[in-house]
Write a structure and sequence with these properties.
Keywords: Coiled coil. By secondary structure, this protein is mostly helical. The chain has a domain of 71 residues. Helices cover 72% and strands 0% of the residues. α1 packs antiparallel against α2, α4 packs across α7 and α6 packs antiparallel against α7.
Length: 292
């Protein structure tokens, strides 16, 4: 070859492949590490097999050139084809590295998602444990409530039995008292009619017993009323004629002084009869009823 050229060569960036290694082609023999695992190159399988087995790029070029025995027959077309194969392998390596980078990023994102999922799972487990404890306490409370419900049901049943027995006793007493009530009602009606007859009889007897004593008592009452009216009229007349007999009225000295002052200070517009009637009324209030 007329001029040395450098061609970096590396393996495909797959997850199981090691780090890529570079191969430098020059006029001197450049060695390719035997331990490097090269990915398949798109193109001729024979060229790829020779490329893997050859220790240098010159031998790779010799392997792809026809065995005519004349080195001068290697044309620029063969070198160009070889370069295109190398470029295609480099392009495949770049694509593989990009895919490997994407795979790494995907795996990292998956690991982050997995860590987040683990945290959420732990939180969920904690929440489930708390909910189970809460469920256990709720079940215990429910059992206690069920016991209370059973007790209340039993008490309700007892009350129902008591009510039934009371209703039966009430029916029995009603059946027993119904004829007694009828007998009592008939007895009361009989006694009422007897009392009514006795009342009429007593009324008739009172009318019949209206004797002379009763008539005299009524006559005395009428006379007393007339005497009271005459005494009142007489006192009013004494006041009007200024001939009031204080001894007859039997009033106290203080009341007598008050009456005198009232008589002296009487209103000129008040008639003598009205003033005398007022004084007589005051005097009557002071004296005993028997002397009126």
């Amino acid at each position: 070859m007329s001029s040395p050229n450098t061609y970096p060569c590396s393996s495909s960036a797959l997850p199981s492949s090691p780090q890529p290694t570079s191969v430098v082609a020059s006029s001197s023999s450049t060695e390719v590490p035997a331990s490097s695992a090269l990915a398949p190159v798109r193109g001729n399988k024979r060229i790829y097999a020779g490329f893997v087995a050859a220790p240098s790029l010159e031998e790779v070029a010799d392997s792809v050139v026809s065995d005519s025995g004349d080195e001068s027959e290697t044309t620029s077309q063969e070198l160009a084809r070889l370069r295109s194969e190398i470029h295609s392998s480099q392009a495949a390596q770049a694509i593989a590295e990009a895919s490997f980078t994407k795979e790494i990023m995907r795996r990292e994102s998956l690991q982050m998602a997995c860590s987040s999922a683990h945290r959420e799972m732990k939180q969920t487990q904690t929440e489930v444990h708390r909910l189970r404890e809460r469920q256990s306490s709720v079940l215990q409370e429910l059992d206690a409530f069920n016991v209370q419900v059973d007790v209340h049901k039993e008490l309700y049943q007892r009350l129902e039995n008591c009510i039934k027995s009371a209703e039966d006793e009430f029916q029995r007493l009603t059946q027993y008292t119904s004829p007694q009530k009828k007998v009592f009602t008939a007895t009361v009606a009989t006694n009422t009619s007897q009392i009514r007859r006795l009342h009429h009889l007593l009324s008739d007897s009172d009318i019949a017993d209206d004797s002379a004593n009763t008539r005299l008592e009524r006559r005395n009452e009428d006379i007393r009323d007339q005497v009271k009216r005459v005494s009142s009229t007489n006192k009013a007349l004494c006041f009007s004629t200024c001939e009031l007999n204080w001894e007859l009225l039997d009033v106290s000295g203080q009341t007598r002084d008050i009456l005198k002052r009232l008589y002296v200070m009487k209103d000129s517009t008040m008639s003598g009869e009205n003033f005398a009637a007022g004084l007589a009324w005051i005097a009557c209030r002071e004296g005993p009823e028997e002397q009126l």
